[in-house]
Design brief:
This protein is of the alpha+beta class. The chain folds into 2 domains: 65 residues, Ribosomal protein L9, N-terminal domain (Ribosomal Protein L9, domain 1); 76 residues, Ribosomal Protein L9, domain 2. 33% of the residues lie in helices and 31% in strands. The protein is built from 3 helices and 9 strands; from the N terminus they run E-E-H-E-H-E-E-H-E-E-E-E. The chain has a 4-stranded mixed β-sheet. A 3-stranded antiparallel β-sheet has the order 2-1-3, with helices on one face. A two-stranded antiparallel ribbon has the order 5-7. A hairpin with a 2-residue loop joins strand 8 and strand 9. The longest helix has 32 residues. The radius of gyration is 21 Å and the shape is elongated. The relative contact order is 0.15.
């Protein structure tokens, strides 16, 4: 199915490019999210008029993502948790929601869908890298440190 992109889409193309994708991908993702339009004569006219504006808007989003990436460089979280006796296994786990709550407390306005926990919920002590996708071309890693909490007997 032929489409014209309204946004930069990772691994697909830039604003204004004509692409060829499978019908399901177009119907289920690109068209509902307003990332692309069908290349009809009317749509091509609209896109050619909007192209400069769309490119400028996309560039502004990318610059905002770059500035947020600068703030996140060197950012890490430390979670103090209870562990089971004689093991590194946690009681419960550190979930994506726990990480998101801490990021919001620290003043980083990131949406849940932008954060990727590669191995799922954290269930053991250690240091983990979490990938944060700020834009289709901008991403960074955040370090999550899980430590044993100091318990008083």
């Amino acid at each position: 199915m032929k489409l014209v992109l309204l946004k930069d889409v990772k691994h697909l193309g830039k604003v204004g490019e004509e692409i060829n994708v499978k019908g399901g991908y177009a119907r289920n993702f690109l068209l509902p999210t307003k990332s692309a339009l069908t290349p009809s004569p009317e749509n091509l006219e609209v896109i050619s008029k909007m192209k400069d504006e769309l490119i400028k808007k996309e560039q502004e989003l990318k610059e905002a993502a770059m500035s947020l990436k600068e703030k996140l460089i060197g950012y890490s979280q430390t979670h103090k948790v209870k562990v089971k006796d004689d093991s590194n296994e946690l009681f419960g786990s550190i979930t994506l929601q726990n990480i998101m709550d801490r990021m919001k407390e620290d003043g980083h306005p990131i949406e849940k869908k932008q954060v990727n926990l590669p191995s799922g919920a954290i269930k053991e002590l250690g240091t983990y890298n979490v990938n944060v996708s700020l834009h289709s071309e901008v991403a960074c890693d955040v370090i999550i440190v899980v430590e044993k909490s100091e318990e008083e007997s």
